[in-house]
Design brief:
The chain has 9 helices and 16 strands.
Length: about 290
């Protein structure tokens, strides 16, 4: 047990160091100016993406040379599939937000152990905040102005919910779900994984993405953060999302909420032809995740 404690402390320490240094690098480039290129998948990449990627990988590789790294900005190496530990990183999540200068971009550093996410770090350069979590250890936030870790938790709201959605990637179906749910009081447009930070910190309550558009590096770190803060981060068909798969696309999307009952109210279960009986669905989730909410 002692060795396990030392290991997760070390993993988190190194991850936080990488996140802090990446934040400083990104913010410097953000303020000085940057070039933008379009990748083969028609998504933008900037000098900040590449600089952050190089920096984070250097720090992680030095500390954990036997771990694999899956990054948005590198060609995939299938050897990662044979590794026990895999870092999954997005060195600049929300590149479109970065390019549009809306300040809502972040760094995602996740860690997977045998396909299950165990560590999540989401660092927000513009605000200086770092949200982080490790499996069974809770979720916390620190900042440039307050380096003391503060434990965070999702809200307990059942009504007057605040939904969060993307500036650039929300579909009409998703907008319709928010608009027709009587429990949703308002919708905030928020970039990158900051959506998950708001839910984990109790400032928002639900977020959904139905269909393709995200990959493992978009959801790995946020999933640990929300889960350790007491919330739910699932696929739209209520299965646990696993990582380090041959196909890194999240083809079905995701569902995030402070409470499982609030996901039920959004009606996604009926849309996916799953159990529409609330008791049955909650029993299924309890068996799968050991939660009572």
């Amino acid at each position: 047990m002692a060795s396990d404690n030392r290991l997760w402390h070390r993993q988190l320490e190194v991850g936080l160091t990488a996140a802090k240094k990446a934040m400083a690098t990104i913010l410097l480039i953000y303020r000085k100016g940057f070039s933008v290129k379009i990748k083969a998948d028609n998504s933008p990449v900037t000098d900040a993406d590449l600089a952050s990627n190089k920096l984070i990988k250097s720090i992680l590789n030095k500390a954990f040379p036997d771990y694999a790294i899956l990054s948005e900005e590198d060609a995939d190496n299938p050897e990662r599939l044979n590794k026990e530990w895999v870092f999954i990183i997005d060195p600049l999540d929300g590149t479109e937000d970065f390019v549009h200068k809306d300040n809502q971009f972040c760094v995602n550093i996740g860690l997977v152990h045998f396909h299950r996410p165990v560590m999540g770090i989401v660092a927000i350069p513009y605000t200086g905040e770092i949200f982080y979590a490790y499996k069974d250890q809770g979720a916390f936030v620190v900042s440039d102005t307050d380096p003391t870790p503060h434990k965070i938790h999702v809200s307990d709201r059942d009504d007057d919910l605040i939904a969060v959605t993307s500036h650039f990637h929300t579909t009409p179906v998703e907008e319709d779900i928010y608009r027709t749910d009587p429990k949703v009081k308002g919708v905030l447009k928020v970039g990158s994984s900051i959506k998950s930070c708001l839910i984990a910190g109790g400032k928002a309550d639900v977020a959904i993405k139905l269909g393709p558009g995200t990959k493992e590096w978009d959801t790995c770190a946020p999933q640990v953060l929300v889960t350790e803060a007491g919330g739910f981060f699932l696929t739209p068909d209520w299965t646990e999302r696993l990582y380090d798969k041959p196909d890194v696309y999240n083809h079905d999307g995701y569902s995030i909420a402070n409470k499982f009952s609030n996901l039920l109210s959004l009606g996604i279960i009926s849309k996916k032809n799953l159990a529409d009986d609330r008791k049955k669905a909650k029993g299924l989730l309890k068996r799968a995740f050991g939660k009572k909410r």
